Amino acid sequence: MIDVLDYVMLFFLAATAIGIVRLRGLIAVVMLSGIYSLLAASLFVILDAPDVALTEAAVGVGAATVLMLGTVALTTREEKPVRFRPLPLVVVVVTGIVLIYGTLSLPPFGAADVPARLHVSPLYLAEGYEQTGVPNIVTAVLASYRGFDTLGEVVVIMAAGVGVIALLAGRRSGQGEKGE
Amino acid sequence: MTEDVVLRVITKQLIPYILLFALYVQFHGDFGPGGGFQAGVLFGAAFILYGMVFGVATVEQLFSTSVFRIGIAAGVLLYSAVGLAGLMLAGNFLDYNVLAAYPKEGQHIGIMVIEFGVGVTVAAVVVSAFYAFAQPKA
């Protein structure tokens, strides 16, 4: 039953992606990318990753959609028609085939005896609650064991925000000068 | 900004719940799914929704652009301060065990404060970006 749900979600993900590529109206593209994020969030819930799903739903569906609508309002609502060129298509198809070929030698989904699950994960799962007192192991790893990484993430978000503000503040003064 | 009565009324009704849910996600992240990143975006989303329906100028009367710009740095500084506090108390950088008398209590305080720092920065970045996009073309 869950497998069927997986395939339905993946089918809709692919259909949405094709729709995003083919549509020329950018408002519709923004809406479709929001739907894409919502489908991805649902898929994360099916995969038992509610923390990631919550982030994807809040950032991908909410914040990113609003910011992209803002971008569309500042630029244009219609994508320029692009001349068909075969080389990018060949590159994308070849890369896709190589990636799919690569997945064939991956361990089966959820396998327990793979290096990724034998390094520090058993220690975190066994002693995480003892050492941190936090029942949600995701929070324990993110905030305590990997606190330094998370500090880096927050700095990246700060840098991104400062970058957006610097870019768009320049836009205002630049246009003001032209208008005078 | 919209004159639609339904949107205006529903938005006003919804915003307290969005803010409350953001706080729940923020401070219940130890026990359920959530944490600073998710809560920050939710908190920012409430401001964005209000700004979209009632106009950015109305939100800016409450919290000006500079409040959120200070928030961007304040969250990161709060997080770093917890790290430095660990160093001051003869532990390692971001070592929460030394923050209180008992290691687990220290972990609890440390995680709570750094998650709050994350939430402040994320919310401030989201709202600042919205302000930046929504400002009228001069």
Account of the 3D structure:
The complex is a heterodimer of chains A (180) and B (138). Chain A has helices at residues 2-22, 26-46, 50-74, 86-104, 115-118, 121-132, 137-145, 147-179. With 180 residues, chain A is mostly helical. Chain A starts with a helix and ends with a helix. In chain A, helix 2 (26-46) packs antiparallel against helix 3, helix 6 (121-132) packs across helix 7 and helix 7 crosses helix 8 (147-179). In chain B, 76% of the residues lie in helices and 0% in strands. Chain B has 138 residues and is mainly alpha-helical. In chain B, helix 1 (5-27) packs antiparallel against helix 2, helix 2 packs across helix 3 (56-62) and helix 2 (36-54) runs parallel beside helix 5 (103-134). Chain B is built from five helices and no strands. Chain B has one domain (5-134). Chain B has helices at 5-27, 36-54, 56-62, 65-88, 103-134. Classes of the chains: A mainly alpha (180), B mainly alpha (138). Chains A and B meet through helix 3, helix 7 and helix 8 of A and helix 2, helix 4 and helix 5 of B.
